[in-house]
Amino acid sequence: xxxxxxxxxxxxxxxxxxxxxxxxxxxxxxxxxxxxxxxxxxxxxxxxxxxxxxxxxxxxxxxxxxxxxxxxxxxxxxxxxxxxxxxxxxxxxxxxxxxxxxxxxxxxxxxxxxxx
Length: 116
Description:
single chain
C-alpha cells in the first residue's frame, strides 16, 4: 500500500466517523420531536399546525380525516476515493411530515415523519 492510498483510506474512515456522529445527533433531535408530536395528538389544531410548520406542500381529503404534508427533497453528491480513482455518487436526501386531522374537530389524529 502506498502513502497516497493510505491517505485515501484515512480520509474515507474520517468521513465514515463524521457521518456516524451526525446520525447520533439527529437521533436525539428525532426523539425529542417524536415526544413533542405524540404529546400533541388530540391537542394540536390544524390552524396551530399551519402556524408551526407553515404552508403545506399537499393536502388529501378523506371521509373522516384530512392529511396534510410538508416536505422537501434535494439531490446532492459525494466523492469517494477508490484506489487511484475518485468515484462520484449522487445522493438524494429529504424529509416528509404528514399530519392527519379529524375533519370534525380539526385536531391532530396521527402523524408520520420520514427522512432519507
